[in-house]
């Protein structure tokens, strides 16, 4: 088969339940992009297998094409920035972020569908609810502290090499958000409005045609799940908790995501 297996030039490094699968499915429609469909978890769980193992997983590309992979847990993995930097300091990084409160609820909803006997969202969120003490050791909460995780990346990569996608705008204006992704990757804006239609049942944009066939492509049934109902007071407490982190994040990246 034509082409060569190459290490990725761009990686979608985060965040879980932010919209990373949508970004990957949308960008791979581009003729100049080849993407690995599964999450290799190389820079967090499989690093010991070595770069050649990682390369062997990649799709074949022509010289004119870019290889992309996505593993959303990289963003919160302490060692990932250094490891990616050691592979190539020119790697372009894509981070899909969404309102951390909604993200946490979505994360919990996904876990609950696999483990129905876990404690309530409220029970896991607080170390002490009456004092409003949030348990930052719970992954669903920790992931949304974007400003904290970003610091590890900025030790190795300049902001110009990291592109932030708004998970909210990805739903309301997929073509606009993907236009910026294409600009960031240095490829022509091929993916436009004409590639999308809005699926009312899922509440999500879908592709009119997928990469592999001429058929419409919506994300799988695990995407667009109805979220668990959470007490509004808990949501309010979480908003207060995340506010300083959000403000710091906006200031650092020079972009206001309007999560307030």
List descriptors.
alpha/beta; Rossmann fold; five-stranded parallel beta sheet
Overview of the structural elements:
Helix 7 (146-154) packs parallel to helix 10 (232-253). This protein has a single domain, classed as Rossmann fold. 34% of the residues are buried. The chain has a five-stranded parallel beta sheet. A two-stranded antiparallel sheet has the order 1-4. It has a two-stranded antiparallel ribbon with strand order 7-8. It has ten helices and eleven strands. By secondary structure, the chain is α/β, with parallel strands linked by helices. The protein is globular, with a radius of gyration of 19 Å. The protein has helices at 20-27, 51-57, 80-87, 100-114, 121-125, 139-142, 146-154, 167-172, 174-185, 232-253; strands at 4-5, 10-14, 33-35, 60-61, 66-70, 92-97, 126-128, 133-134, 162-166, 196-199, 204-207.
Oligomer: single chain
Which CATH architecture? 3-Layer(aba) Sandwich
Major sheet strand order: 3-5-2-6-9
Mean pLDDT: 95
Strand content: 15-25%
Helix/strand structural class: alpha/beta
Q: What is the CATH first-level class name?
A: Alpha Beta
Number of domains: 1
How many helical elements? 10
Strand segment tally:
11
Rough shape?
Answer: globular
In helices, the fraction of residues equals 25-40%
The H/E string reads EEHEHEEHEHHEEHHEHHEEH
The CATH fourth-level homologous superfamily: P-loop containing nucleotide triphosphate hydrolases
Rg over C-alpha atoms, rounded to the nearest angstrom:
19 Å
Sheet bearing the most strands, described? 5 strands, parallel
Low-confidence stretches: none
- End-to-end distance, in Å? 50 Å
Pfam families: Sulfotransfer_1
Binding site for 3'-phosphoadenylyl sulfate: 17-21, 98, 106, 223-227
Active site: 17
Protein name: Sulfotransferase
